[in-house]
Amino acid sequence: MKHFPHPAARRTLTVLAAGTVAALALAGCSTGTTDDGGSTGAGNGSFDSVEAALEKGGEITYWSWTPSAEAQAEAFMKEYPNVKVNVVNAGTNNDEYTKLQNAIKAGSGAPDVVQIEYYAFPQFALTDAFVDLSQYGFSDFEEDYTASTWNSVTDGDAIYGLPQDSGPMALFYNKAVFDAAGLDVPTTWDEYYEAAKAIHAANPSAYITNDTGDAGFATSMIWQAGGKPFSTSGTDVTIDLQDEGSKKWTENWNRLVEEDLVAPVSSWSDEWFRALGDGSIATLVIGAWMPGNLISGAPDGAGDWRVAPMPTYDGSPASAENGGGGQAVTTQSKNPELSAGFLWWLNNSEDSISLFLESGGFPSTTAELASDDFLADAPEYFGGQKINEVLAAAAGDVVEGWSYLPYQVYGNSIFGDTVGQSYQNGTDLNEGLTAWQDALVEYGNAQGFAVNK
Questions:
Q1: Strand 58-63 to 83-88 pairing
Q2: pLDDT by residue (tens digit) across 52-65?
Q3: Spatial CA neighbour of 402 closest among 147, 149, 227
Q4: Which of 161, 187, 190, 357 registers the highest number of CB atoms within 10 A of its CB?
Q5: Of 275, 134, 262, 157, nearest to 207 (Cα)?
Q6: Chain centroid to CA 29: how far?
Q7: What are the backbone angles phi and psi of residue 124, rounded to the nearest 5°?
Q8: CB of 329 within 8 A of CB of 194?
Q9: Mean pLDDT, 10 residues at a time, the chain of 453 residues
Q10: 3-state SS class at 223
Q11: 3-state DSSP call for residue 344?
């Protein structure tokens, strides 16, 4: 089944203002009444009120761009016939976030349930846009999800959503290219660098990978290297894009960029898919949601591609998340208990998760990641390899302790103007990261955060 390009990989450069922060209600303040009369709910710490709301029924609106959204809503309404779910595609990632931010600012117009990528959760949670689901007993569901995705939708005891998909990173590689060059699959970044030189030397039109500068990729690579460049406490923000992990990544990746060993081809372009099909781009270090995109977008590579663990700095298993997201209940919802029930079913029901997986998604739920059927999947495109065994293992190897900026949406939008210049000029990525940090500090302070103070 055709899978659409993962939204995290199709980010635009739309600038989404975080809004003034000085008067924000901070995390945990999600009970009360919204400006348009919607109640944020006041649960008693149990799931009882959610179950009662599902039986009573009502009407809610759900914003989502996923291919499976309509089918999931139909299945939900079949199980809960007293509920009507109106599915609205309000645009992909930044387009949707802009509309949501405008609705929050206006005090009306937000949906009951909204799809949000993990990197955008902190911004909206900080502005009190999402209901804290801990009041409905959602803390009981923590063990149902991988640690990294659960961490992405929570802040301390506050729970601002449930995870839907995940993107633990792995090495997708063209086995035919490696075999022809007599190369083993790299397990360390030093081996990856040596393979990059060998592939490009054998064919100057071939590269080990492409990279023209992408914020999601860079932050994921810093994450895998153990970097923790962003930390937030209330409105106090610390940014250090020269921390040990950030420098570890740039020391590794600089040699590829400065020696012209990465293809100057933009991801998700027609040229990129052609290169993946003909082997002139030999690897991708990317999230576990990638298989469907290769199958549909690069059919000429069928049978040649395989999956291996992400290379590491010392050979010990280590991965990071790249993409993925979940859903949240907005504080403008007039029926937060019912909305919470739909969100729970969406990401905790076997029927719903099956529909999501059929559309090409990669699960965040531990049960699916451990299931025999899931692990036994062996696509012909990947030579009959049981690729989910590798990808599920990567989900368990995600480095702990990562956090995003509370204005990461904006931060990603200016990555090309800062770090992207280092890629274009083939110069030290540390200079680009420093320029990015300077811009992030200036913007954050202008928005009312106390950044690096």
A1: parallel
A2: 999 999 999 999 99
A3: 227
A4: 161
A5: 262
A6: 25
A7: -80, -30
A8: no
A9: 34 37 36 40 76 97 96 98 98 93 96 97 92 97 97 96 98 98 98 98 97 97 98 96 98 97 96 98 98 97 98 96 97 98 97 95 97 97 98 97 96 96 95 98 97 97
A10: helix
A11: helix
